[in-house]
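Q: Got a minute? One more chain.
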Amino acid sequence: MTAFGKLIRTTAFRLTLVYLFLFALFAAFLLGFFAWNTRRLITEQITTTVNAETGEISDIFGRRGLRSLVNTIENRALRPGANLYLVTTPTGQAIAGNVGSLAPGVMASTGWSETAYRRLDDQDNANHFALVRVTELSSGFRLLIGRDLEERRRLFGIVAKAGQFSLLVVVVLGLGGGIFVARRVLRRIDAMTGTTQRIMAGDLTGRLPVGRSGDELDRLA
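A: Always. Here it is, folded:
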């Protein structure tokens, strides 16, 4: 049997693999929980902001009418890093906002949804994704306010990459530590085996090496 074959068959190496698997599983669970919690916090932040703005703009429409609503939407849509805004007539025609296209059926029902979208001023043809809320105003007008999910996707990607790297480090260090521990144990076992074989062959002067640690191998010796 090769030296490496003997090494990986040792109890110490197998126990190291078991503990490595359990630790990696725990680390993966912890990182997954952190990623999920980060995603949840960002989503809650988006919903809080959108709810507050929806209430404010709905109040403007109720007090000042459609013209003030359109002016408010157009002004806010021009701000740097603006949210998504869209106002449609009862027939579904867009009359204000910065949204160029949405997934089919988004404006047909009220409430929250995640949708692909494009802004009016987008230079590329790629779809982006946003969390949006559609509210029905009086007279059948509909108001959409949402926030791009790129920040949430980017943070989730950072956590995922960090998790992959961390697990890789854990596996490499765990295997290295397992090989180191197994080799030390194997050297002691081989020394005991060699001495025992000499004694069995008739050399009664042989003595098993006993260390000072008092561990299970010393007790066996």
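A: The longest helix spans residues 11-64.
Q: Perfect, thanks.
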